[in-house]
UniProtKB/TrEMBL annotation:
Single Gene Ontology BP annotation: methylation
GO molecular function: 2-polyprenyl-6-hydroxyphenol methylase activity
Lineage: Bacteria, Bacillati, Actinomycetota, Actinomycetes, Streptosporangiales
Organism: Nonomuraea coxensis DSM 45129
Name this protein carries in UniProt: Ubiquinone biosynthesis O-methyltransferase
Top-tier EC class: transferase
Keyword Protein biosynthesis among record annotations: no
Primary gene name: ubiG1
Key words of the record: Methyltransferase, Transferase, Ubiquinone
Amino acid sequence: MSPSPARYDAVADFYVSGWPDSIDDPASLRLLSLAEPIAGRRILDLACGHGRITRELARRRAIVTGVDISGALLARARLAERESALGVTYVHADVTAPEQPWLSMSPYDVVTCNFGLSDIDDLDAAVTAAARALRPGGTFVCSILHPCFPGGHHVSGSWPEGGRYHDEGWWRADAELSSLRRQVGANHRTLSTYLNTFRRHGLRLDVLAEPEPPEDWTAGRQDAARHPVFLVARCVKDG
């Protein structure tokens, strides 16, 4: 059974146009560096969207499967695969569903999730799927908006304006420069919630990085750039 319509289905055109194939943002570059070695390894890209990271992993000669709940975004990913085949397998599925037939393709050497965890309402179920997909000693690499990012002028932070860092839950941004999260919202969780969830599922923190945003982003958001904006983590599955 296909998953129900996803939040990104309604904004697929906007999302694809705003996040093209070029991988030049510091958070995605750090995620890719922490996924190394890539060539020849089996990699699962969770919440793969239109396949931006998935395709880059394949270009680096990984054997890649991408999974996403958005049929509209996956249609773009499959179109790109038909136009320039890289051998990527795409699966339309809700990674938090109790039955996961696509996990029969496990185990993977690496699971990646680039800015996807805050879009997923059930973090525990998503991390369960990531841990199940990995072989012992495999790595889980993810990037997110930093849970401690308070925002700035015309830029929404990780939690609602007027709210508190410790208040978790889904919300929709309203700042002028937070164009994507104004449309699809995001789940705010504390840093400890993320790290404790990883550890509870046998994913031991190995590397934590806080890459700075690019200069063109910082130039128009200097007050926001005084704070940590991105968080990238690599965890290793217990043997």
